[in-house]
Amino acid sequence: MPLKRSWVQEDLGRKEQPDLKRRRIMAIISISRGTFSGGKRIAELVADRLGYPCLGREEILLEAGKEYGISEKELTEAINQPPPFWQQVPGRRIAYLMCLTAALLKKAQGGKLVYHGHAGHFLLSSISHVLRVRVIADMEYRIRSAMERMNLKRDEAMLYIERVDKERVKWTRFLYGMEWGDPSQYDVVLNLERMTLDAASRTIVSMTELDDFKVTPQSLKAQEDLTLSSSVWAALVKDERTRAASVQVVADNGAVTITGKAGTGKVVDAIPEVVAQVQGVKQIKNEVGIGSDWYW
């Protein structure tokens, strides 16, 4: 049994967040697409119609890498590639994904954001005012797009698309226990074989007006809790003293609970010091024990 140190640090003097009416948060749109399925162009059209900023996976990878000191290669592997067969616990991958979540939510603080990338609907799944869109296209469309954009031969384009799709399926099953293409993970699935890019973008824009995707006090709390927990997690990854700790972070109205294991008591003691520096933290409960962090 690992040794455990449990203590609570309260009242860090943070200001209360403004209320819902003052913040006027609008829907966040997450567009998931297969490689060369047209999702990026749809995201750009939607963002242009709504006057929202538009971000892709590549921009978030760069932002997270710059903010938290992680190489783009490591982040890309965490979000794209399935783990090796011997890796049963995705410690580092989860930590890196939380860094991506933190970077994405910082961009979404104003509530007006269109994000295109296959992981968005998973990273933001706890927030009900996120409109989760899946864009699909027939293989011929995807092959032609890959040939044009990557200057590939037909067979090379087909092999590339099939490889990326397989990696994403394995990655999603491993990390979430879900199927990447499962329609139940999305609010709407748009088939570009049966509609134009313009029609698809207009459909998404019209859905943002539905009450189902309006911000509520509950959804706002979910966004703020996820923003804080992912920011804390990312801060622990960034700090050299706590980077190797295998932890879980939960936030609830500014109260942050950290559980898991660390290699030494010195690491355990450093955790609240790091967490206290994260904006929005009001209370810290450190339940990290001393034990093995072998999978990191």
Topology:
Blueprint (H helix, E strand, L loop, with lengths): L2 E2 L2 E3 L10 H4 L4 E6 L5 H12 L3 E3 H12 L3 H9 L10 H17 L5 E4 L3 H4 L6 E7 L2 H12 L3 H23 L11 E4 L5 H11 L9 H22 L7 E7 L2 E8 L2 H11 L7 E8 L6
Structure, described:
It contains eleven helices and ten strands. It has 296 residues and is α/β, with parallel strands linked by helices. The chain folds into two domains: 83 residues, Histidine-containing Protein, Chain: A; 187 residues, P-loop containing nucleotide triphosphate hydrolases (Rossmann fold, 3-Layer(aba) Sandwich). The strands form two sheets. Strands 1, 2, 8, 9 and 10 form a five-stranded mixed β-sheet that branches. Helix 11 links the parallel strand 9 and strand 10. Helix 4 packs across helix 5, helix 5 crosses helix 10 and helix 7 crosses helix 8. The protein starts with a strand and ends in a 6-residue tail after the last strand.
List the main descriptive attributes of the protein structure presented here.
single chain; 296 residues; alpha/beta; Histidine-containing Protein, Chain: A; Rossmann fold; 2 domains; five-stranded mixed β-sheet; five-stranded parallel β-sheet; 10 strands; globular; disordered N terminus
Sum this structure up briefly.
The chain has 296 residues and is an alpha/beta fold. It has eleven helices and ten strands.
Mean pLDDT: 84
Runs with pLDDT <50, length 5+? 1-5, 14-25
- Reported by name, the CATH topology of the largest domain is Rossmann fold
CATH class of the largest domain: Alpha Beta
Structural class estimated from helices and strands? alpha/beta
The percent range for strand residues is: 15-25%
Per DSSP, the total helix count is 11
For the termini, the CA-CA separation is 19 Å
Note the main sheet: 5 strands, mixed
Global outline: globular
What series of H and E elements makes up the topology? EEHEHEHHHEHEHHEHHEEHE
CATH architecture of the largest domain: 3-Layer(aba) Sandwich
Indicate how many domains the architecture comprises: 2
* Backbone CA Rg: 20 Å
The share of residues in helices is 40-55%
CATH superfamily of the largest domain: P-loop containing nucleotide triphosphate hydrolases
Structure summary, number of beta strands: 10
